[in-house]
Amino acid sequence: MTEVIRKVGVLGCGLMGSGIAQVSAMAGYPTIVKEAADEFLQKGMAAIEKSLGKFVEKGSLTAEQRAEMLARLKGTTRFEDLSDCDIVIEAITENLQVKRETYAALDETVKPEAVFASNTSSLSITELMMATKRVDRFIGLHFFNPVPLMKLVEVVGTITTSSEVLDRAMKFVASLGKVPIRTSDRSGFIVNRLLVPYLLDSIRALEEGVGTVEDIDKGMKLGCGYPMGPFTLLDYVGLETTYYIANIMFEEFREKRFAPPPLLKRLVLAGHHGRKTGRGFYDHSDPNNPKPLF
Ligand code: NAD
Question: What does DSSP say about strands 152-157 and 138-143: parallel, antiparallel, or unpaired?
Answer without folding.
Answer: antiparallel
